[in-house]
Amino acid sequence: MVDISVLLTIGEVSDRTGVATSALRFYETSGLIESRRTSGNQRRYQRSTIRTIAVIKAAQRAGIPLDEIRERLARLPAGRAPNREDWEELSKAWSSSLDTRIAQLIRVKEDLADCIGCGCLSIDNCSLINPGDELSSTLAGTSKLELVTDSGSK
Length: 154
Ligand code: FES
What we know:
Elements: H1 10-17, H2 21-29, E1 36-37, E2 43-44, H3 49-61, H4 66-74, H5 84-115, H6 134-138, H7 144-153
Antiparallel strand pairs: 1-2
């Protein structure tokens, strides 16, 4: 049983982390952190929540989607903040994820470079709109625009 008097208020957590109380409520609603409630239904947080929030902030800085952060944090033992070993593992995984997204963005930038000065906006031929000519394999020669137009007119 946790002595609720030693827990932190949402304002204290906000002050110590620099995260707005509205964002803390959002984190909680999103399943990233959890709180206990007083008899007056006020939130109280374990001190270890500050460390969890540090991990969330670092992950967000690296552009990691909230779903991925939540999924990774959920693998940790319940009620325990990420320790040094956890952070080592998380940061390695997110570094790898970041490498993947950087490679994707470089490909998008290359595709976008082909569009500069073009203006065709071709559903079939623009590699930004139709990367890897996905439409040719999925729609067997029928353009997606035609399908949308056909279904819209029925
Ligand atoms: S707009 Fe023409 S190739 Fe993308």
